[in-house]
């Protein structure tokens, strides 16, 4: 039998008012459309306790002890990839009365251990962490004006049909309606590879890379896009940032940049390996992708047009926010001893 719904505080108060006015319990039950027993117990509870609120209940006893709760918590911390069923099986192997997987998951939630999708990151060796830590310490006292002298550069690939989850509102039987579907094409329907840069609170060129970008192509980008943008956005002896991609560190490109450095045109920032999370260009690419996805590109040429249009709409305020964030990034890397940090908290 289903449990009767508990009386509200308003109903209980109405019972007391009517009782004080001289109504019988049966008359009250009929007037409020509730059972006689409900009226009877409410009146007697008030007479005994002086309140019309529920008595404190002991509740159902916990089926795990503090020691067992600790075992669940510690086991999960020792092996973060253990699932709820695995932890329950391990615990139940020592108990006479087994506990359910749901109970184990509740104990984990109580301990603040929530199940989340693993974030993929490049494996950092000790040498990589040392380089990241050294870079952060060398730049932690840089001012905002110092960072504005840096020309940030990077390459990125954009898919015509992205892989993000898309949400739609539909009724129960509208699952296969055309307006409730999103197009799916093998290999993303094609992609557009771009090189871009920004510095001094302004975006530079957005260059479309066709085919495979080799060292000769990258040297051409440096000559016709990176250096001209650095000079126009920042000025003489700007600081060029680039990652450690093999084509970037090729002899051809190193020699070309070395000649320009000797001529006082630019300086080269030493960049630690596996450190895309330090480069504000990554956040700029994410912002650009969000802007383009709203317009639903239909082809590679259409995607390239939208990328150019969105690139021109990037505001100086947003770029300055990316620049002012970098000192916090340095401190986060130092706090992580050169390891990865929670980017959402920076």
Automatic annotation (TrEMBL):
Domain Transposase Tc1-like: 71-141
InterPro entries, per database record: Homeodomain-like_sf, IS30-like_HTH, RNaseH_sf, Tc1-like_DDE_dom, Transposase_5, Transposase_Tc1-like, WH-like_DNA-bd_sf
Chain segments carrying region Disordered: 49-68
Domain Tc1-like transposase DDE: 150-299
Domain of life: Eukaryota
Domain Transposase IS30-like HTH residues, every copy: 4-45
GO terms (BP aspect): DNA integration; DNA transposition
An example Gene Ontology molecular-function term: DNA binding
Protein name per Swiss-Prot or TrEMBL: Transposase
Organism name: Oncorhynchus tshawytscha
